[in-house]
Hints:
Layout (H helix, E strand, L loop, with lengths): L4 E6 L7 H14 L4 E6 L1 H4 L6 H17 L8 E4 L4 H11 L4 H5 L2 H12 L10 H15 L5 E3 L5 H18 L7 E3 L29 H9 L18 H6 L5 H13 L4 H27 L2 H30 L6
Parallel strand pairs: 1-2, 2-3, 4-5
Amino acid sequence: MARKIALTGIQPSGTPHLGNYLGMYRPALELAADYDAYYFIADYHALTTVRDGESLTRNTYEVAAIWLALGLDPHKATLYRQSDVPEVFELAWALGCVTPKGLLNRAHAYKAALDANAAAGRSPDDGVSMGLYNYPLLMAADILICGAHVVPVGSDQRQHVEMTDDIASWFNNAYGPILTPPEAIVRDEVALIPGLDGRKMSKSYGNVIPIFAPPKEQRKLVMRIVTDSRPPEEPKDPAQDNLFNIFKHFAAPGEVAEVRARYESGGIGYGEVKSRLAELLEESFGPARERYDALLSNTPHLDEALAGGADRVRAVARPLLQRVRDAVGTGARL
Ligand code: TRP
């Protein structure tokens, strides 16, 4: 039986942190064992915010290197650059023609821009590009061009996948059952990884621990995780502790249970947990960091891997797009 398809995209925008890893990379790597994985670098989505071509190019290589360093097997999974798949952009146009404008008006990112403008007394669409507005359409095309069944994403992207589902229905209602409605996979247990200060780990809060930071630097950041000032003897609720809420994702289940019990009974100090977390991070990411550095210093190899991925995804995208063209009337000839 053919395997189902899992697809996800990551914008090329700088170094990933533990929150990205736990919320995105790790679940996607796990899914790749059971699904046909199509994982791509959403470089044209990044164009909505990045204005510096050189850093976009560099960040694109970085994301490719991250996937490979973390163990994605490019012979089993399909790793590619969105911009290498012209079929995506043609499909996006066709989808736009069946999508009510009102749907895109409701997108969270667009609404946030409207709210910010209203609060600042600016005109509603100030600073809103058509790229930002159409972002969900391009994302729908990414997903639908591969016939993806599941889309592992962070909770902030759930709405986009639901919109994709709606868009596929409108298209199919108009033209017949051509597009596969996708389903988001959002892992709630990793939706909220706390950062150094306890707020959600996010680049915009400056509270991140990068997965590939040099060991010393990574350890220093771990030591900066904010905890309360209770002494080791005092019993503590592990669920309330930022440190434990990061630690529990990296230690083996037995160790998590043991440390949890010591929080609850009293008798564990934050310093000890921090030291252990730093060790665990080095175990998780040390070898991958070395592979990452090696991969990034060999961009022709990355080009080759991405070109192979592009060939594979286009072998799926071309016939799908042909069916769309035939259905809408741009592909058929009298
Ligand atoms: N919007 C996603 C993000 O910012 C990236 C993305 C683009 C994506 N196209 C996609 C994710 C298709 C899943 C499927 O994280």
